[in-house]
Amino acid sequence: MRFCKKCVMPDTRPGITFDENGICIACQHAMKKKTVNWDERHKELENLCDKYRRKKGGEYDCIIAVSGGKDSHRQVYTMKEEMGMNPLLVTVEDLFTPTNAARHNIRNIAEAFHLHLIAFKPNPHAGKIISRYMFEKYGRPTWYFDRLLYTLPLYYASIFNLPLLVYGENVSYEYGGLDCEETYSAREQIFNNVAPDIDLNEFRQLGLTDDELIYLTTPNRDLLDKLDPIYLSYFIKWSDQSNYELAKQWGFKDLSGEWTRSNHIDNYSHIDSFGWGLGSWMKYPKFGHTFATDASSRLVRQGLITREEAVKLVEEKDHNLDQRVRDDFCAMTGMTTHEFYEALDKLYNRDIFEKNEFGQWRLKTEYYEKRRKGE
Ligand SMILES: [Zn+2]
Predict the structure, then answer these.
(1) Counting Cβ atoms within 10 Å, is residue 312 exposed (0-12), middle (13-18) or buried (19+)?
(2) What's the 360 CA to ligand 1 centre distance in angstroms?
(3) Distance 304 CA to ligand 1 centre (A)
(4) How far is CA 61 from CA 88, 164, 229, in A?
(5) Taking a C-beta distance cutoff of 8 angstroms, is the pair 167, 65 a contact?
């Protein structure tokens, strides 16, 4: 395990690479972004919108996959207010307990921008069984919802015959992952390994029927090729802070006064539901880093905090599994806390973790040193 010299990202992140100076690909991309001509990119987006804008009105022009979060507010603002499009919003709910902020935000996004929104509520029976199975076997507790989040907007775009499908940022490109070439097209996003294809026989063996497994398969190539899914982060200057500020102006609420999370450094990202947070937190036992590493690395790249400050935040936060996340996941899947920890214990990566004198998993001491030094 080695760490970027500039930010605090380790090489255990799937797909990340480092250059000969020890700088990670996400930092290299962030530096490259500073040279982008945003006026030109804006023009490219206008041209693309013109291609898909329906002339006579009374019809949708595009689909936007939204969660109600700050980035969703930015996507809708750009497409509706700046580009003058008439988007159809689609959202995929999960089966966890939503935060009050999320309840407000998903309602707000349709209300503030005067739009229609389709909310898909997944099959609870399949959701419970698959979530528990995927957690215990692969450490992917939110795979079922993440998968639907990836597949459904594509199916909807096809059903409504709306080729222009708008996503926010290209996670692989911005933060290091399998996509290393910058492109506006999100057509290959489904293959980025966030919620990979799984042989459905695994779920059939759990007693689930094909009727319950609808929409879990990757849309076929013919369908994908008819669509033009895009990453908005290619066309506009994208940042957590500016999206948050803009979203607030349009009525977005953060978690202030509702939930202080033990493993986050902000109160406005990933705020949809309590249990869903387990999905991203699982990067910690598997790869030794999670939210605080991701978020503080971004702040370092933007010059908002120093590397030393980022190390401190990561050491304070990353290992914490927030109790409300754990309890909500157990409540949804019907697991006891004991069963939960028994499964979690097996998922810690023995190459990078060891147990301390209190029986808690901690990164091996050498990695704390390496992270501090950036080597
Ligand atoms: Zn870096």
Answers:
(1) middle
(2) 28
(3) 14
(4) 8, 8, 13
(5) yes
Q: How far is the CA of 23 from the centre of ligand 1 (A)?
A: 5
- Ligand 1 centroid–CA 33 distance in Å is 14
- 58-69 average pLDDT score: 95
Report CA(267)–ligand 1 centroid distance (Å): 23
Instruction: Quick: pLDDT tens for 6-46.
Output: 999 999 998 899 999 999 999 999 998 899 999 999 999 99
Q: pLDDT value at position 177?
A: 63
Q: What is the pTM of this model?
A: 0.94
- Classified as helix, coil or strand, 91 is strand
Every domain of the chain and the residues it spans: 25-34+254-373, 52-235
Rounded average pLDDT over 44-64: 94
pLDDT in tens, 329-340: 999 999 999 999
CA of 157 to the centre of ligand 1 (A): 35
Identify residues whose C-beta is under 5 A from ligand 1, the ion. 4, 6-7, 9, 24, 27
Q: Per CATH, the architecture of 52-235 is what?
A: 3-Layer(aba) Sandwich (3.40)
